[in-house]
Amino acid sequence: MGTAVTDGFSLAGGGYWVMMDADLSHRPQDLPKLLVALSDADIVVGSRYIDGGSVVNWPLRRRIASRGASAVGRVIVGLQVRDLTSGFGGFRRRWMEPLLPSLNPKGFKLLLEILAKSRGARVTEVPITFVDRQSGKSKASASEALVFLRLCFELRGQRRPPVRND
Question: What is the rounded distance in angstroms from the CA atom of residue 142 to the CA atom of residue 145?
Fold first, then answer.
């Protein structure tokens, strides 16, 4: 999935790029908040875990796993973002274009890699409501958790600023 997103970014036009789930777990009505926030940020994360954010219809084990992964990522990689497992984000094209060649998406946590490699970026979170999908299955699994943990350790020492095209 991460490769599909980066391929989409490399073909995208416009000044802002957005990543979101196509199954409507990320509500289209939350999109304007991301776009408004991009007027003062390079990266905007749609967050379930800041004031005003929420999750609808998730079992307790999924909530714990998601919050736990974000906490682990913050500690290991050294990031401040509360929702590192969010798949809903907005990005300034001029920030992301120079970063694209360095991205090596593993699993489905592309946001973690983008943030880890974006030292110096103006990053903000906006509250969103995440609604569990009506059909289909989550990609979350024990093997994906191991991929995430390994990625955290790989990214720990890779924080570097991309070249800016201002």
Answer: 5
The two three-digit tokens of residue 52, written as one number: 């005003």
What letter represents residue 6's amino acid?
Answer: T
pLDDT in tens, 137-163: 666 667 878 888 998 999 987 655 444
SS3 (DSSP) at 149: helix
Question: Tokens 């593993």 belong to which residue?
Answer: 106
Q: How many residues does the chain have?
A: 166
pLDDT of amino acid 108? 59
69 within 8 A of 144, measured Cβ to Cβ = no
In the CATH scheme, what is the code of domain 2-155?
Answer: 3.90.550
- Structural domain boundaries in the chain: 2-155
Q: What is the pLDDT of residues 91-102, one digit of tens each?
A: 999 999 999 999
pLDDT tens digits along 27-41: 999 999 999 999 999
**Helix 60-73 vs helix 142-155: angle between axes, to the nearest 10 degrees?**
20
Contact 133, 24 (CB under 8 A): yes
Structure tokens at 149: 């943990």
The whole-angstrom separation of Cα 39 and Cα 55 is: 26
Instruction: Provide the greatest CA pair distance for the chain.
Output: 44
- Map tokens 């908040």 to a residue: 33
d(CA 6, CA 102): 11
